[in-house]
Amino acid sequence: MRHGKKINHLGRKSAHRHALLSNMASSLILNKRITTTVAKAKALRKYVEPLLTKAKDDTTHSRRTVFSYLQNKESVKTLFGEVASKISDRPGGYTRIIKMGDVRVGDNAEMCLIELVDFNTLYSKDGEVKKAKTRRSRKGKKAEGADGATEAAADAPVAEPKAEKKTKKASPKKDKE
Predict the structure, then answer these.
(1) What's the burial of 161, exposed, middle or buried (CB within 10 Å: 0-12/13-18/19+)?
(2) What pTM was computed for the model?
C-alpha cells in the first residue's frame, strides 16, 4: 500500500534525485523546453514551479533561495531576468507537459515535452490583448452599482417581483393548558 507517499523517488537516492531535478530545472529555465520521461516531468513541475513563483519577487533573499536549489548562476540570471518578466501576471501554472505518444527504445518509458507556458508562441495569439481579470465578489458590485446604477436603471425595463402567497399551516404542536 502506498498511503501518504506523495514523492516519486524516481529510482534514486535523495542526493541523486535532488541533483537530477536541479539540473533539469536549470536546463528548463535556460532552454525553455526539454524532452524527458513523464515521471521526471511531473516531479520537475513540483520542483520548479515554486522557484518560478519566488522569481516574481526580485530580492536578494529570493535570489539566494533560488540559487540554493539550482546551483547555477546563469539559470538564476535568466530566471530573474527574462522569465520573471514574462510570468509576472500569471497566477500559477507556469509549465506545460505535452505527452509525445512515443516510448524510449531502451526501457519503453513514455516520453513527453515539458515547457514554460509563456515561451510557446504556438498556443498564444499574437493579436490577442489580455483583458483584465475580474473578481466576482459582492464588494465590487456595490462599488459599480453606486456609480452606474442610475444609468442602468433608466435604460433597463423594470421587472416587477412576483407576489408571494402567504399560507398558514397548522403547527404540529398543540397548546396544552
Answers:
(1) exposed
(2) 0.70
